[in-house]
Amino acid sequence: MEVSKKLLKEAQEVLTQTSRTFVIPISRLEGSLNHVVMAAYLCMRSIDEIEDHPILPKEDKIRLLRSVGKQILNTETPLSPLFSEWDDMLPEVTVRIDDWLLLIPSEITEKVRYFVSKMAFGMADWTERNWVVRTEEDLDDYTYYVAGLVGELLSTLWKWHDGIDTAKNLAVSFGRGLQAVNIIRNRSEDQERGVSFYPDGWTQERMIQYAKKQLSQADEYIASIQSKHIYEFCSIPLALAYGTLRVIENKQEKLKREEVIKIVDTIIR
Fold first, then answer.
1. Are 14 and 78 in contact (CB under 8 A)?
2. How many angstroms separate the CA atoms of 230 and 236, rounded?
């Protein structure tokens, strides 16, 4: 499939605007794998922006997420008409989801759409539940739909492009671990908007323990990957997650830019 250079450039620009964690590792992938991983990330980010929207009413979020979840499975029907009512409210990454889907090779598009659909329905359900996390099982379920599915999708892409087999549970832990670190990092912001992803009675230390358990399984996940470029892709966000946890445990504000550069340089060497 011939990919428009203009569209590819625009996708790269939107990726840079929307992701700090994945922009570097995605940029290091080459050819069709670069295109499909970037497009899949932008599609998943597009629905994440609906779930996280600061002023979109809850009922509209649920309706829109379920509409996307249903319609994306039909390759003949564009998604853009679904957003017409909220065009002026939703970000570019969301309203241009049809463009990102164009970057995905036809032989893998059905599987990418399946995972985006599953995520959309899961996010709709959690929006309906007001993101109330009471137990570890709730936390597992929430982190599965918003991040564990990303791990599953990536493993599907590794198999498609490089013939790499990875364990599904470890792929889920890869995504879940990164999300757990995000939850810890963003706790104050979440509390300000009246949301907490910490199960009842959990301390900061207990949540860090949960994150470390997931990240240790993510270590197992990447250890099974023989492809250098895919290994680097997975290693960079994982190393940044460990670095972020270290900063939090040391009561520092955040990873400094020079620390991020050092972590990335260590991996790509």
1. no
2. 10
Taking only the tens place, the pLDDT of each residue in 232-263 is 999 999 999 999 999 999 887 778 878 878 88
Q: How many CB atoms lie within 10 A of CB 5?
A: 8
Residues 6 or more apart in contact with residue 268 via CB below 8 angstroms: 28, 232, 236
pLDDT tens sequence across 144-186: 999 999 999 999 999 999 999 999 999 999 999 999 999 999 9
- Residue 126 included in any domain: no
pTM over the 0.85 mark: yes
Specify if 206 maps to a domain: yes
- Residue 183 belongs to some domain of the structure: yes
Those residues whose C-beta lies under 8 Å from the C-beta of residue 58, and which sit 6 or more positions away, are 127, 128, 130
d(CA 65, CA 47): 7
